[in-house]
Amino acid sequence: MGSSIEWFDYFLYATTAALVFGKVFFPTSDPVVGLMLSYLTFSLTFFIRPLGGFIFSHIGDRIGRKKTLVITLSLMGGATVLIGLLPGYEQIGIWAPILLIVLRLVQGLGIGGEWGGALLLAYEYAPKNRKGLFGSVPQMGVTIGMVLATLAITVMSTLPDDQFLAWGWRVPFLMSAILVFLGLWIRKGIDETPAFKQAKASGNVAKIPLVETLRYHWRAVLVAVAIKFVETAPFYIFSTFIVSYATATLGFERISVLNAVTIATLVTTLMIPLMGRLSDSMGRKRMFVAGTLVMAAFTFPYFMLLEQRTMTSLVIATVVGLGLVWAPITAVLGTLFSEIFSTRVRYTGITLGYQIGAALAGGTAPLLATWLLNTYNGSWVPVAWYIVGTAVISLIGIAFAKTVADND
Asked: Are 157 and 258 in contact (CB under 8 A)?
């Protein structure tokens, strides 16, 4: 629940960046430049996320998972509400984009420590034969948050364009305060995980988790970074880049694209726990490899479907790509990460892998895809090869993944 709220705040920015921020905070004579500047603020967060990960994973491995999650949600919620109150470029000039970037960086700090804590609460409570299922549940927070964000912007998009740009987009940011208070209430009522309690009772807690992880577990961190590539880059292509690409290049209506993404995300949300449960019987690595190979194979058909420029082809491409092909990859990601690090440094290890991988392949994806599209005269082929490249990197990473003995 708390993870869904935090990702709602996070994706609210991502969705709005494609539709609003280029006009409100980065007005230029060239709409492509404005869009790329907007995506740049989206990308910057991914490079501050590892810093948030360093800070909060230290707290998580030293003090506990629960306290860390309360702090991260507070940071995210506060920054989101302030973005909703932020004046545009016409009101305060250059301070508008500067303050937007600062608040987005605060969001990045919060989300940097969120994922690891939410995952470990589920994973470290899981029975041995249900690690895949329990580890997949926090991943649903990502898609539920995205559904809520997309629905919120879709509802506000029914307003006339001038009203939507003037104040309509701000409403979901301000309303998120209610969800944040709900999430904090829930998180204060949860207990610390049994695995961490046991580690702390036995003194098996790292003094400086980051140093220990980088000194003795750096290979596992590199493996986690590589595995993250195919999970994060296609996700932001299928969910964020598609919004601007389909509206500006292919001529779709904004609400049509948002509806397609919403349908696909609902399908993903249902598929994730099913894939997580299936991984308990067929194995995490086998499912991840299968999903990655299908992702690489589907990339070109995905763009070919979009080129048909019909609502049916748009929905099919988005549902298959985001809803079906991506689901098994993300469902097993958290459990895979958890199984290659011991309890002693698990929060730090999985957070480093996740956030560095996200910074390298996730935040840059919409920006790089927009640049490739513009550089190659609107051709989607380089973007497709980019996705295939992320799949190859992840296949190399999974080949070197080793499960540690202390994985409970």
From this structure: yes
pLDDT per residue over 243-259, tens digit each?
A: 888 888 888 887 888 88
3-class SS at 164? helix
**In the numeric block, which tokens belong to residue 203?**
């003194």
C-alpha 298/C-alpha 295 separation (Å) is: 5
- 262 closest CA partner among 288, 239, 230: 239
The DSSP letter of residue 193 is P
Q: Rounded distance, CA 76 to CA 71, Å?
A: 9
Two tokens at 90?
């016409």
Query: What's the one-letter identity of residue 152?
Result: A
242, burial (CB in 10 Å: exposed 0-12, middle 13-18, buried 19+): buried
Q: Please say whether the beta carbons of 335 and 132 come within 8 A.
A: yes
Residue 329 pLDDT = 95
Residues 6 or more apart whose CB falls under 8 angstroms from that of 362 comprise: 46, 228, 232, 233, 235, 236
Largest CA distance in the chain: 63
pLDDT of residue 408: 45
Q: What pLDDT score was predicted for residue 348?
A: 85
State the Cα–Cα distance between residues 104 and 124, nearest whole angstrom. 31
d(CA 138, CA 276): 11
Q: Is 1 exposed, middle or buried (0-12, 13-18, 19+ CB in 10 A)?
A: middle
Residue closest to 4 by CA, chosen among 173, 145, 133 = 145
- Enter the tokens of residue 201: 């009772």
In the chain, the N- to C-terminal Cα span, in Å, equals 23
* Per-residue pLDDT, 18: 66
Residue 250 CB neighbours (<10 A): 17
Express each pLDDT in 173-203 by its tens digit. 998 888 888 888 887 777 776 766 776 676 6
Quick one: angle between helices 131-156 and 95-123, nearest 10? 150
